[in-house]
Write a structure and sequence with these properties.
By secondary structure, this protein is an alpha/beta fold. It has a single domain, classed as Rossmann fold (3-Layer(aba) Sandwich), CATH 3.40.50. Helix content is about 50%, strand content about 15%. The strands form two sheets. It has a five-stranded parallel beta sheet, sandwiched between helices. A three-stranded antiparallel beta sheet has the order 3-4-5, with helices on one face. A hairpin with a 4-residue loop joins β3 and β4. α2 crosses α10, α5 packs parallel to α9 and α8 crosses α9. The longest helix is centred in the first third of the chain and has 18 residues. The protein is globular and about 50 Å long.
Length: about 260
């Protein structure tokens, strides 16, 4: 019976993939360390969609700013620092390449793989500040919207359903208990050999929640038509099933 049910599941999934609207866009927003990227990657594999990690793009810009001594303003300094960010951004080229050993998409900046470097605590502590810079958001939103023109895309971030793709077919807003999120992030960094403490991670996530929600440019907020996914007590499979259910309920298949 178990094998038969599994076969039926595969058949249903195959039908869903083949009938899915060719220009479908799935936007996933939410708080830091909610597992947005994990869910988005899983959906991309499951539904044969293109995955774009918008958060990695902001982290890559942050890394570039830190390495090149470009001013990273605190929220209260945004209107006082006089720096030509537009000119600085012209020198930055971002692209993604597949790591064929892991099967994962990794980010490159000016031809250099920075996938590991952008996950550092220093970048995490500054990415919300860099994300609040108007020139940075305008540049990256334009790039992200170009990615979406061909459709069949799933993108995660903090303003995907509100600013980047306000007319996305499906909008998911993810949340979870802050301590659960901190533990997940701590375990992830520890597994990668990055030394930190749970307390440091918890403070970083709490600070980012506040800054992302209160910034002037494209603040983190739930789109009115977004489906809320609280994954505090959900595993990856349960989250995927939730989104697949939403797709079916919204009838996002060709007639």
């Amino acid at each position: 019976m178990h094998i038969k049910n599994l076969q039926l599941t595969f058949v249903a999934l195959y039908i869903l993939i083949t009938l899915l609207k060719p220009n479908i866009i799935i936007a996933i927003d939410g708080y830091s360390s909610c597992g947005k990227s994990t869910l988005a990657k899983a959906l991309a594999r499951r539904l044969h969609l293109i995955y774009v990690d918008s958060g990695a793009m902001y982290r890559a810009i942050t890394l570039y700013f830190l390495q090149n001594k470009i001013p990273v303003p605190l929220p209260e300094q945004l209107d006082t620092i006089k720096f030509d960010y537009d000119s600085a951004l012209r020198w930055i080229k971002i692209n993604f390449k597949i790591n064929y050993l892991t099967g994962s998409s990794e980010i490159y900046i000016n031809g250099k793989n920075v996938e590991r470097q952008i996950r550092s605590i220093e970048v995490s502590q500054n990415v919300s500040h860099v994300s609040a810079i108007k020139a940075v958001r305008e540049r990256l939103v334009a790039i992200q919207q170009e990615f979406g023109k061909k459709g069949r895309i799933v993108m995660d971030g903090r303003d995907i359903g509100t600013t980047v793709f306000p007319h996305a077919d499906i909008k998911i807003f993810m949340t979870a208990n802050v301590e659960v999120r901190a533990k997940r992030r701590f375990d992830e960094l520890t597994a990668k050999g990055i030394k930190t403490t749970f307390e440091e991670i918890l403070k970083n996530i709490s600070d980012r929640d506040y800054e992302d929600s209160h910034r002037k440019e494209s603040p983190l907020r739930q789109a009115p038509d977004a489906f809320v996914l609280d994954n505090t007590f959900l595993d990856e499979q349960e989250q995927i099933e939730y989104v697949l259910k939403v797709i079916k309920e919204k009838s996002l298949i060709n007639s």
